[in-house]
Amino acid sequence: MPEQTLPNVLTERRGPLLIVTLNRPHVKNCCDAATAEQMSAAMDLLDDDPSLFIGILTGSGGNFSTGADLKAAARGERATTDDRGGFGLFRRPPRKPLIAAVEGYAVGGGLELCLSCDLVVAARDARMGLPEVRHSVVAVGGGLFRLPRRIPYHLAMELALSGELRDAPFFHQHGLVNRLAEPGAALQDAIAMAEQLLVNAPLALSASKEIMQRSADWTEEEAWRLQVPIAARAIDSEDRREGLAAFAEKRKPTWSGR
After folding, report:
1. What UniProt keywords are attached to this protein's entry (predicted)?
2. How far apart are CA 111 and CA 67, in angstroms?
3. Is residue 56 within 8 Å of 194, Cβ to Cβ?
4. pTM here?
5. Which of 132, 158, 164, 249 is catalytic?
6. Which among 112, 158, 222, 249 is annotated as catalytic?
7. What is the pLDDT along the chain (258 residues), one digit of tens a residue?
8. Is 222 a known active-site residue?
């Protein structure tokens, strides 16, 4: 099959896990308009299918993503969607946990994809950064406000103003990368991380994610009140009753996502 007829974004189900793969290896998985639309559809699938609990985002061909497709941009394409924003993800990530599995380059919009995820597993030799200023471009995919919330302010500022790339151990040292993997093993290690999370109730996972994300804009007084309806989706669920029954019966719970 000719390369250009392959989907730009592949999805693979592994039980309650959805693996989403950027599939433009010939351009290091940079994003054009079609890729953004397909990414948005993949995130809709993760959010809307109650049998899917966690997502993993990765790239094919040894790279995560080198950001926007500049040739497509020169043709007037916009790698964005009305609903989820840039790359079909930046403005509205999925409600469910999303893990980035990074090999090779995650630069520009590629790093902003990582910042749109909740957890990051990166190969030790991966290279990450925001080089936009070197091309008179501004990182408007969330990098300039998300990065200083994830690592110390002055380090984030240095990365944004210098455009320099750093290796994954640098980002691991400063807390952006959760786990380092051996080269070629990032996806494997991300799947192992997801399997550790899957022992927990899926509705509780998504509620915990939402409260942590939204609480950045809440006062403490607001937080006590606003967390209640979000947590209630898990606390009042069938899975909550299953969890209690499994504890009493000394067995592993079987989660339904309901």
Report:
1. Lyase
2. 8
3. yes
4. 0.94
5. 132
6. 112
7. 233 456 999 999 999 999 999 999 999 999 999 999 999 999 999 999 999 999 999 999 999 999 999 899 889 999 999 999 999 999 999 999 999 999 999 999 999 999 999 999 999 999 999 999 999 999 999 999 999 999 999 999 999 999 999 999 999 999 999 999 999 999 999 999 999 999 999 999 999 999 999 999 999 999 999 999 999 999 998 989 988 898 898 898 999 888
8. no
Cβ-based neighbours of 28, under 8 Å, separated by 6 or more = 61, 63, 65, 66, 104, 105
Closest C-alpha to 175, from 200, 197, 153: 153
Give me the residue label for tokens 């380092």: 180
Helix 143-150 / helix 109-116 crossing angle, nearest 10 deg: 60
Contact 29, 23 (CB under 8 A): yes
Please, what's the largest Cα pairwise distance for the chain? 62
